[in-house]
Amino acid sequence: MNYNLNELTSLQEKQSTYKALKRLIRLISAERKNLWLALVTILVNSGLLLLAPLLIGYTIDTYIRTKQFHGVLLFAGILLVMYLMAMFTGYTQTKLMGGVGQRMLYTLRNAIFNKLQELPVSFFNQNKAGDLISRVNNDTDKLNQFFSQSLMQFIGSIVTMIGAGVFLLSINLELGSAALSPAVLIVLFTMLLSPWVKRKNARNLKSVGGLSAEIQESLNNFKVIIAFNRRDYFRKRFDEANKENYKTAIGAGVANNIFVPVYGLLSSVAQLIVLLFGIYLISIGNFSLGLLVSYISYTTNFYNPLRQLAALWTSFQVAMASWDRISQILLLESDLKQTAGDQSITSDALLEFKNVHFSYDDSKEILHNINLRFDKGKTYALIGPTGGGKTTTASLISRLYDATKGTVLLNGKDIRSFSAEERTQKIGFILQEPFLFTGTVKDNILYGNSQYKDVSDQELKKIIEDANLNALLAIFDEGLNTQVTSGSDSISLGQKQLIAFMRAVLRNPELLILDEATANIDTITEQLLGNILNKLSKETTLVIIAHRLNTIENADEIYFVNEGQVQKAGTLNDALDMLLKGKRAS
Ligand SMILES: Nc1ncnc2c1ncn2[C@@H]1O[C@H](COP(=O)(O)OP(=O)(O)OP(=O)(O)O)[C@@H](O)[C@H]1O
Fold it and tell me: Where are the beta strands (DSSP E) in 423-470?
């Protein structure tokens, strides 16, 4: 399945804003109460601002022209109260929407992170971590900015604009139509340019993702960069990503800023039309001075929000481009869900491959029509040249991937019919490069082990003793409390493998896969691991992947994995022969 988000971007680019908006509204439905409250405050705010020009016009025509100054003072007071109320409603709206934005940011980040946890390994193979981080951090924040700062302003501006438009048309239809005519041009201009602006912003967000992927890659690999003195190479790559980001940011900036001056120009043209036409109407006795003042104010009330809308429209376009990038993750479905699987096939083995084919990306088949079986309590070895397909076979055993064709059976049933909890309880996997979390050795060996979730240090020591893991724990200076830092070199690779080993053994799985699990461990400790494995429950099946043949001396059966084939190798000597015969992966 194609999980490459950047390829999906181009496929989904044409998805309509309407559909995206519908999904976004569904997301914020939990905030309905606050949104309604904010809407009411913004409507009151707009209403107050709309009423003001009418009162000013009325004051001029009724009190100023007749020199009744007490009336002028009274209306000035009323206007002051109205402006204060407008300030209060404006503030309340900002506060409410700030909260909505932050809560949405929180919910969205959680939703994306949870979705990332559900997605299969192939998703992470096809996407760079830096780009994903940028989607979780940067894109969600763009959406938050729109919600907390722009949405209600957006609605307020539209309401003020519509209100001003209604006043303009209802007071004098001819003058009103003349005042609104430049707005038609603005609407046309916006409709024509919006898709282009959204595209420019999407490109910019993509390049921000690319930049953070680049930074992440070089920070992760700084040791190799220094060891090979390839700083210049990474500097060049970073420079290219940075340049791309700069270019797309300039492009997005140009696109985003094109609306404001055009709107400004057309708004000034509208004022001029009102002034000239209004004076003409006054000169022929069809209009009053007070009304003209109100009119000019309403024209400002119509075009100012329109100008604001131009800026807000940009923020909306950026938010929609971000939302597209976020939705791409949220809409993805794992292709490794629990399903009924193929119920027509059964098996009496602990684990069996029946006519299994597998390829990572449809281009090259890595495993070709594989049939193999692992029985309860036996030890199996997978050997073969580098790149032969051993880890891939193990990945299919633990369902990190599904077979492209054929069936993998666990406990006699299609492996796809097990829940992830059941499956991981039954199958333990020690990876070539074990991953540890920041915390103590105890945190790491109990990771994902619901059986010993609330166990005390004392109880855990006893459990470790019973599992014969004491000697391994003794290798760590501070035992269970030794600090481990994820991704750092505070402990050696061999020590990491020991922790992963203890983690896997304590889960007491029915099938334990060791993928080069002793490659970085000294011979004495390796013997210790061998003894621990021998003392594992007689029910436990072991699958050992190893390059060092001495580690598989005690295997009941040896499989030779190469060039898409898995063959029984017979004895250790036969296996050695197969390796020496130069059966290398092409
Ligand atoms: N995530 C992946 N995407 C695409 N191809 C992959 C992926 N992982 C492995 N391969 C390819 O699959 C083939 C088998 O790789 P695999 O890791 O299974 O070999 P291996 O026998 O375990 O090698 P080693 O002894 O080096 O660990 C190789 O050609 C490799 O390039």
Answer: 427-430, 439-440
Does residue 360 have its Cβ closer than 6 Å to ligand 1? Answer: yes
Distance separating alpha carbons of residues 325 and 108, to the nearest angstrom: 12
Dihedral angle, C-alpha 25, 27, 28, 33, nearest 10 ° = 100
Options 3.40.50.300, 3.90.1720.10, 3.10.180.10, 1.20.1560.10; CATH for 5-330 is 1.20.1560.10
Give the span between the Cα atoms of 179 and 270, in whole angstroms. 5
Q: What is the pLDDT of residues 190-228, one digit of tens each?
A: 888 888 888 888 888 888 888 888 887 777 777 677 777
- 368/403 Cα distance (integer angstroms): 10
CB of 148 sitting under 6 A from ligand 1: no
Q: Is 359 in the pocket of ligand 1 (CB under 6 A)?
A: no
What ipTM is given for this predicted complex? 0.95
What SS3 class is residue 286?
coil
Atom of ligand 1 nearest to the CA of 585: 29
- Distance from the alpha carbon of residue 357 to the mean position of ligand 1, in angstroms: 14
Angle at 581 between CA 579 and CA 582, to 5 degrees: 75
Using DSSP bridges, classify how beta strands 413-414 and 405-410 pair: parallel, antiparallel or unpaired: antiparallel
Residue among 508, 448, 445 at smallest CA distance from 475: 445
Q: Does 479 sit in the ligand 1 pocket, CB within 6 Å?
A: no
Cα of 366 vs centre of ligand 1, distance in Å, is 8
User: Considering the domain 351-580 in this protein, what is its CATH number?
Assistant: 3.40.50.300
